[in-house]
Design brief:
By secondary structure, this protein is mainly α. It has one domain (about 5-120). It has helices at about 5-15, 25-30, 30-40, 50-55, 55-65, 80-90, 95-100, 105, 110-120. Helix 1 (about 5-15) packs parallel to helix 3 and helix 5 runs parallel beside helix 6.
């Protein structure tokens, strides 16, 4: 399948449906503007972003604010970041999301309480 290489077209598509990032060329999956637009619309689009952008705190925070389970696609480093994990818990604070956090943060009382708060 041919990938989308035109940034302008892709920006229009991801603004309507962030999951269209799937159809982006490798170059555009690494374009910060495109990926930010995609995750603002659909946090799960983080899964199609380049590794570099999966390690970009601004991009990842935007994704987990939209969809807490996007934590799954964040870099290992950012899954250890308390701020990122707390934001994910605020959006979707379930054990399913918590399992993507670092072991240390899975045992952090504030993180666990935030997850519990969202669950009930």
């Amino acid at each position: 399948m041919k990938k989308i290489t035109d940034k302008k077209i892709l920006l229009e598509l991801v603004a309507e449906d962030g999951s269209c990032l799937y159809y982006a060329s490798e170059e555009l999956r690494g374009d910060r503007e495109v990926v930010l637009e995609a995750v603002k619309q659909n946090g799960n689009a983080l899964r199609f972003a380049s590794e570099e952008l999966q390690n970009d705190i601004e991009v990842v925070l935007e994704a987990v604010r939209q969809y807490g389970f996007a934590l799954r696609y964040a870099s290992e480093e950012l899954r250890k970041d308390r701020k990122v994990v707390l934001e994910a818990m605020k959006k979707d604070g379930y054990a399913g999301v918590l399992k993507y956090a670092s072991k240390e943060l899975q045992n952090d009382i504030e993180v666990v309480l935030e997850a519990q708060k969202q669950h009930y």
